[in-house]
Amino acid sequence: MSTVEARIAELGLTLPDVVPPLATYQPAVRSGSYVHTAGQLPMVDGAIPVTGKVGAEVSPEQAKELAARCALNGLAAVKSVIGDLDKIVRVVKVVGFVASAPDFTGQPGVLNGASELLGEILGEKGVHARSAVGVAVLPLDAPVEVEFLVEVRG
């Protein structure tokens, strides 16, 4: 087990299987020293546990937890390309999309779920730049979607 995966286990989490694509794309693609993930939904065992708009059907706290799940799914996608999460040099950029009720403006707080989990798992390697974007709707009525760019070695 890699050091990163051991840390995931220490946090009481399990690295999931890669979420199969919902359309014509790859979950992650390597280009040189970088891995780009596709947008990761908060899938758990093939389903999204909570659907709807943040600030309406979904609370910001629930959405923050779902964003963390997106990050975990993203790490699984990265592993599928590089084989060993210990090859991560750093998370460079995280982009998060939040399906938002018209008056909801707490997108950064929701995306903290992904950012905080990456920091807990990867330490300084998990510190990244980020964008948090409010949108009208996401695939499968997901409340949140997260993608990231990771620098890797080897």
Written description of the protein model:
The protein has about 150 residues and is an alpha+beta fold. It has 3 helices and 5 strands, in the order H-E-E-H-E-H-E-E. The protein has helices at about 5-10, 60-80, 105-120, and strands spanning about 30, 35, 90-100, 130-135, 145-150. It has a 5-stranded mixed beta sheet with strand order 1-2-5-3-4, with helices on one face. Helix 2 (about 60-80) packs across helix 3 (about 105-120). The longest helix is centred in the middle third of the chain and has 23 residues, at about 60-80.
Which descriptor suits the 3D outline?
A: globular
Helix/strand class: alpha+beta
Q: Provide the β-strand percentage band.
A: 15-25%
Mean pLDDT: 97
Compute the separation of the termini in Å: 18 Å
Strand order of the largest sheet: 1-2-5-3-4
Q: What does the main sheet amount to? A: 5 strands, mixed
| Relative helix content | 25-40%
Written as H for each helix and E for each strand, in order along the chain, the element string is HEEHEHEE
